Amino acid sequence: MHDLNAEIVPHPDYQMYFEFDNENFVSILKICGVHRRGTDRSITLVIRQAAKGTSTQIIVRSRRGKFQWGLDDAGTPTATIRNHGISGRDLQKLFDSPEFKNIVAQLKEKIEWK
């Protein structure tokens, strides 16, 4: 796995719940070749999944708001730089990158699914 601080966070509703601080979020963007246009330095990224076989959800939190998107959702994410610290176009590039898909797959391997 890439050198990311990926710790499983216990969560009552999700079997897979990983939270990345801004430094790790920026590292993920670099690994995936995405150049974020926003300047918000307080973004956290959550990758979570309720159970094996369900859609993986991504949450981006910034000082101004929270944006949630399912990796199986159709279309382009509607996040905005002003409200979420990153644009939907940049998130789509992230989600479409093979490196990000690999990161998510490696996180799933760490889970003991019930």
Give your account of this protein's structure:
By secondary structure, the protein is α+β, with helices and mostly antiparallel strands. It has one domain (16-109). The protein is built from four helices and four strands. It has a four-stranded antiparallel β-sheet. β3 and β4 form a beta hairpin. It starts with 15 loop residues before the first strand and ends in a 5-residue tail after the last helix.
* Order of the strands making up the biggest sheet: 1-2-3-4
Count of discrete structural domains = 1
User: What is the average per-residue confidence, as pLDDT, rounded to a whole number?
Assistant: 89
Q: Percent range for helical residues?
A: 25-40%
Number of DSSP helices?
4
What would the principal axes of the Cα set say about the shape? globular
End-to-end distance:
23 Å
Enumerate the spans where pLDDT stays under 50 for 5 or more consecutive residues. Answer: none
Question: Rounded to an integer, what's the Rg over CA atoms?
Answer: 13 Å
Give the gist of this structure:
The protein contains four helices and four strands.
Features:
114 residues; alpha+beta; 4 strands; globular
Write the layout of secondary structure elements.
Layout: E1 16-20, H1 22-31, E2 44-49, E3 57-61, E4 66-70, H2 81-84, H3 88-96, H4 98-109
Antiparallel strand pairs: 1-2, 2-3, 3-4
